[in-house]
Q: What sequence folds into this?
């Protein structure tokens, strides 16, 4: 089955959409009528552009409100169809999608609809064209694919076939098994869309929340397996209506669409019942087993301040790069890299974004397998010249153009020994042990893209999406967690322009790492030691602790230490969670320290308290004197 996408799925004008679709590697496209009607070139020019881009036009759609009309409306709709046939001939496509009618004057009756489609099919056949009939989930008389198939069957014309759309089927709650009884040659096109499960009417759900397979919660693979059982061998085409997609760039969304179909093909092949034509199995998902390092791109002034902060948190300088202005600061299993080079990727990142995280290093079970999978999924591999004595560590582009490097646990020591000269260190018990999670902020319309990116490449499980109340609006947060919790990444985005998440984007000039959480086995002792080093933390109001005391029966000593140190606390059925935050650096970046006592979440209940405190620090409020 060849991969296709409808132009309505992307933002931009028709030419921009077609170029993005071709660049993403699609061989075929559906032309959506409104995209063509608003384009400043005729059908022949569109046909030539598609030919130059290597795209075949598999469908022109939609043709609305056709069947079951009384005269004179019926005569008028056939005249309109003939005009569309003219366009199709110029475009060089032979299939027109006819969706079930919602016309207020439309008359019901399967035989009436079948008669209309038979006549339309005969007119189409005289011009070498075909008609595909699709049941809209909100169709006035026909809203179930089983009724649509019965109409096509009764029409009994070789130029009239069925179009199946996964979204319309799932929106109606229709069963999959009857699909298997439909002859594959009577199915003219299969369209795919996923979606989150929402309690909305079908039309609103469809028009705003469709997404690519793997980005939602619908069993799209099971739908495709039922389609394959019919013997259908035509295109699988994405048809997506989504506000986030419309706000994104056509190139990024088209690449996501292609990635989603590659993943779907792999999923179908692994089911053992479907073997997509020409498909090569993907390497297994990468098993992420930890964070190797986090690299900061800084100028000399910012680096001095960051070193002071690291030292106060208990990090020590453990190595200097053999040939570059790069330092390694360590504590427990955490490695922080301070890069002040005046050339290369880190420097370019610092010039573009200012001080911040330019790269993260992830430990994976098999680097070669991870890179092979990334390549197949169209991730952008990264390489820059390697200096004498340096190691070439595989990397790909990540969020905001940052880098993700890959190492293996058994090769970790070799990397540090090979590239860094060790600094003398006095052994002390670490207060911080591991990187607990990395929080990345991005534009709201990018969240689905990066979730698909991470879930496609890594064996991550997503936790339920959270809506977090920032004083300036809602922030959506999605956590992705590796098996065993060895790696956690949170994605944050907001439509509200003045949330902390979006202020970070403004200050950082794009998406990136907004905060890093370190894990401590004894957060109370760690924080008290850091305070003795002169470090101060985000100020939390006394009101929070008054409420905390009322909600939980905490031991007096524990409560006093929480309150005195401004530590946040949460509890669920699995255990307890302690967390604290540093002040925000340059309105863009901060650190978090956590202690997990069987707790697996991220302290969502405390997020509004933290965000309000950060907002106060960013824009101090002076209360009037009473």
A:
């Amino acid at each position: 089955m060849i991969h296709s996408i409808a132009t309505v799925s992307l933002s931009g004008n028709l030419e921009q959409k077609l170029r993005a679709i071709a660049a993403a590697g699609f061989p075929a496209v559906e032309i959506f009528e409104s995209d063509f009607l608003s384009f400043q070139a005729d059908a022949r020019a569109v046909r030539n552009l598609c030919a130059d881009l290597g795209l075949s036009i598999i469908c022109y759609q939609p043709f609305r409100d056709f069947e079951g009309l009384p005269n004179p409306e019926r005569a008028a709709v056939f005249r309109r169809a003939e005009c569309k046939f003219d366009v199709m001939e110029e475009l060089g496509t032979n299939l027109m999608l006819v969706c079930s009618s919602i016309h207020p004057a439309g008359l019901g009756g399967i035989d009436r609809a079948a008669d209309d489609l038979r006549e339309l099919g005969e007119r189409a056949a005289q011009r070498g064209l075909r008609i595909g009939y699709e049941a809209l989930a909100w169709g006035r008389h026909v809203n179930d694919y089983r009724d649509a198939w019965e109409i096509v069957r009764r029409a009994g014309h070789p130029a009239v076939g069925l179009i199946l759309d996964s979204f319309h089927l799932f929106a109606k709650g229709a069963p999959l098994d009857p699909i298997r009884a439909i002859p594959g040659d009577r199915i003219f096109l299969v369209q795919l869309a996923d979606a989150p499960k929402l309690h909305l009417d079908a039309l609103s759900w469809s028009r705003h929340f469709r997404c690519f397979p793997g980005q939602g919660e619908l069993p799209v693979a099971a739908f495709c397996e039922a389609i394959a059982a019919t013997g259908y061998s035509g295109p699988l085409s994405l048809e997506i209506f989504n506000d986030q997609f419309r706000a994104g760039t056509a190139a990024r969304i088209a690449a996501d669409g292609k990635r989603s179909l590659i993943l779907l093909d792999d999923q179908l092949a692994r089911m053992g019942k479907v073997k997509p034509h020409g498909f090569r199995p993907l390497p297994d998902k990468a098993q992420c087993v930890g964070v190797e390092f986090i690299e900061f791109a800084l100028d000399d002034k910012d680096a001095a301040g960051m070193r002071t902060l690291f030292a106060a948190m208990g990090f020590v300088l453990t190595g200097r790069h053999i040939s570059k202005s790069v330092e390694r600061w360590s504590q427990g299993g955490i490695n922080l890299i301070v890069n002040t080079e005046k050339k290369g990727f880190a420097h370019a990142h610092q010039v573009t974004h200012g001080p911040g995280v330019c790269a993260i290093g992830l430990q994976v079970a098999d680097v070669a397998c991870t890179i092979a999978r990334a390549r197949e999924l169209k991730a952008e591999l990264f390489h820059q010249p390697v200096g004498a004595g340096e190691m070439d560590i595989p990397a790909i582009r990540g969020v905001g153009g940052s880098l993700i490097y890959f190492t293996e646990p058994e090769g970790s020591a070799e990397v540090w020994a090979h590239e860094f000269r060790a600094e003398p260190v006095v052994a002390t018990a670490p207060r911080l042990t591991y990187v607990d999670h990395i929080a990345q902020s991005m534009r709201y319309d990018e969240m689905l893209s990066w979730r698909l990116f991470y879930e496609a490449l890594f064996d991550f499980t997503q936790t339920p999406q959270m809506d977090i109340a920032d004083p300036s609006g809602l922030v959506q947060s999605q956590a992705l967690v590796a098996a065993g919790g060895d790696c956690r990444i949170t994605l944050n985005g907001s439509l509200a322009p003045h949330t902390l998440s979006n202020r970070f984007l403004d200050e950082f000039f794009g998406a990136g790492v907004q905060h890093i959480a370190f894990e401590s086995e004894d957060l109370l002792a760690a924080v008290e030691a850091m305070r003795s080093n002169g470090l101060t933390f985000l100020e939390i109001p006394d009101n929070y602790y008054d409420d905390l005391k009322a909600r939980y029966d905490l031991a007096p000593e524990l409560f006093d230490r929480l309150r005195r140190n401004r530590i946040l606390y949460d509890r669920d059925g699995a255990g307890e969670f302690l967390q604290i935050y540093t002040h925000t650096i340059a309105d863009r970046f901060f650190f978090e320290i956590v202690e997990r006592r069987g707790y697996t979440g991220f302290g969502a209940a405390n997020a509004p308290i933290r965000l309000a405190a950060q907002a106060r620090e960013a824009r101090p409020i002076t209360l009037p004197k009473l």
Remarks:
- The chain has 21 helices and 26 strands.
- Residues 3-270 form a domain with the TIM Barrel fold (CATH 3.20.20.150).
- The chain has three domains: 3-270, 288-422, 434-618.
